[in-house]
Automatic annotation (TrEMBL):
It comes from Rhodovulum adriaticum (Rhodopseudomonas adriatica). Transmembrane segments: none annotated. Residues 398-518 form the OmpA-like domain. Residues 1-22 form the signal peptide. Keywords: Membrane, Signal. InterPro entries: OmpA-like (IPR006665), OmpA-like_sf (IPR036737), PBP_domain (IPR024370), Phosphate_ABC_transporter (IPR050811). It holds the Pfam family PBP_like_2. This is Phosphate ABC transporter substrate-binding protein (PhoT family). GO terms for cellular component: membrane. The keyword Glycoprotein does not apply.
Length: 518
């Protein structure tokens, strides 16, 4: 009876929607000690688990614990893992094929690539010695919209997304029994990108206020002379309305306001980049990863601080418009090969592939305090009664000799919920602790806030957030030795701003928890 109860529990935990055996046939699964058995119709087998329709309902059983008999039993040696990724070309055009190829090489598998029609490409991974087909990965390029639609329609197993799902996409996924796609365990950050404004190389405007950029994109400013540029009309260049990054940009920058009338739409970021480079009056909004011929414009706040999208500022989210690239998975068990592929994507080997493909990787970098002179200079220049110089001396005393890790934690709209990239940072930092990468060292979780409110209140808020992040990392690192690494907390409130608080985006990126290594 314990066997059947365990099977029922597994069935509740793992809903398998994988390719079923065709046709489905009867099987009997017997425990290896012969004490218990269950019979039914084999619904699917993923190389690791059987899913059987029985008199008790659908049950999921670990193949290592049972012996299968009957006409429906699969050939364990001939099993092929099959799964399909669908969605954004930002991921699927170059990056995912490169990652599949690298994963195949790492496992010593032969890779062949064929077009299967209807926008689907099949990657077949075979054993080099015997030619046995091990896995077949489908890759369908369309849009982030289409990726989520394919998942709901059971035409895909993994979504390639250049944005987080919209409310209606979350609702449809829940209704289809795919789980809550907004949960961190359903979301896998593969690489980082950013939304950046670009102009032609010789354009006289050297930087843009955020408010002015939004006004240009909306068409509220239509002539460059309003920004001390030439007396000439502005031509706006955007990605297609169904492009995931364009949708993310519209939501974060434009809200419900439509873009400027007459804005030119481009099918992809590289095409937009070339078009803006040829347009002396153009302003484009595109991907950092696709910026080649055009020139990125720095963003400035009301206090004059400049922010440029670089590898470092994208990793730390010190640049305000970071755009992670995601894979979304349903709340059902994927084939073992697919799960191993998802794990591989977080490895240093895979992240080197990400970097070579032109994106920002997820690997942690270190930034010594001495390389952060601009931030310290800004803090000293704005020191006053709320943040006296004595507080800045305390900051330097605590952080002197330490290095800032690019793993930074930020919160959605100033709330206590971490954003998507920060959730990924929690998992990555926990893995590093479990691997012993910081043994014998001290990690300091340092909380900062915006300048709204009293300094004493801000320091308390900053400490609360720093403690919450430290506790989340500690709870996730279940296999780490708690005595091997000291986890400390410090809080400085508004003492070290990255941007100006005069704007909403400035306050948002100032509210953060940094991680320093000593």
């Amino acid at each position: 009876m314990r066997f059947l109860i365990r099977a029922a529990v597994l069935a509740a935990l793992f809903h398998l929607g994988l390719p079923a055996m065709a046709p489905a046939q009867d099987v009997t699964l017997t425990s290896r000690d012969g004490a218990f058995a269950v019979s039914g119709t084999l619904l699917s087998f993923d190389g690791e688990f059987y899913r059987v329709d029985t008199v008790y309902g659908p049950l999921t059983l670990d193949s290592q614990g049972v012996i299968c008999t009957g006409p429906g039993c699969p050939d364990m040696e001939a099993y092929v893992a099959r799964f399909t990724l669908s969605g954004s070309p930002a991921l699927g055009a170059v990056l995912m094929p490169a990652l599949i190829e690298a994963h195949a090489a790492r496992r010593g598998l032969q890779l062949t690539r064929t077009a299967a029609g209807k926008g689907l490409t099949l990657f077949r991974l075979s054993d080099r010695e015997h030619g046995h087909l091990v896995a077949e990965i489908g890759l369908r390029l369309g849009s982030t919209d289409e990726g989520f639609a394919d998942l709901v329609a059971e035409e895909a197993d993994i979504v390639m997304a250049a944005r987080e799902p919209f409310a209606q996409e979350l609702r449809r996924a829940r209704e289809a029994g795919l789980g809550d796609l907004s949960q961190p365990e359903r979301r896998h950050v593969v690489a980082l990108d950013a939304i950046v404004p670009v102009v032609a190389p010789g354009h006289p405007v050297q930087a843009l206020e955020i408010a002015d950029m939004i006004a240009l994109l909306r068409g509220d400013i239509t002539d460059w002379s309003a920004l001390n540029g030439p007396e000439a009309p502005v031509s706006v260049h955007l990605l297609g309305a169904r492009d995931g990054l364009q949708q993310a940009a519209a939501r974060r920058l434009l809200g419900d306001t439509p873009p400027a009338e007459g804005a030119r739409r481009h099918p992809d970021a590289r095409t937009l980049d070339r078009a803006v480079a040829r347009d002396p009056l153009g302003l484009g909004l595109t991907r950092h990863s696709a910026t080649r011929a055009a020139r990125q414009l720095p963003l400035i706040g009301g206090c004059g601080m400049r922010l440029l999208a670089t590898r470092e500022t994208i990793k730390t989210e010190d640049y305000p418009f970071v755009a992670p690239l995601f894979l979304y998975t349903p709340a059902r068990r994927l084939p073992l090969f697919a799960r191993e592929f998802l794990d591989y994507l977080q490895s240093p080997t895979a992240q080197l592939v990400v970097r070579r493909a032109g994106f920002v990787d997820l690997m942690r970098d270190r930034i010594p305090l001495r390389q952060q002179g601009d931030r310290l200079a800004q803090a000293i220049s704005t020191a006053g009664t709320e943040v006296p110089l004595s507080e800045l001396k305390r900051l330097v005393r605590i952080l002197d000799g330490a290095e800032r890790l690019t793993s930074t934690f930020r919160f959605r709209n100033g709330a206590t919920e971490l954003d998507a990239q920060s959730h990924a940072n929690v998992a990555a930092l926990a893995r590093a602790l479990e691997a012993g990468l910081f043994n014998g060292r001290t990690l300091i979780f340092v909380g900062f806030t915006d300048g709204a409110g009293a300094a004493t209140v801000n320091r308390r808020i900053a400490r609360d957030r720093a403690e919450a992040v430290r506790d989340a990392v500690r709870a996730r690192a279940t296999a780490a030795d708690p005595a091997a690494v000291a986890l400390r907390v410090a809080a400085f409130g508004e003492a070290l701003p990255i941007a100006c608080d005069q704007s909403d985006w400035g306050g948002l990126i100032n509210r953060r928890v940094e991680v320093w290594l000593r």
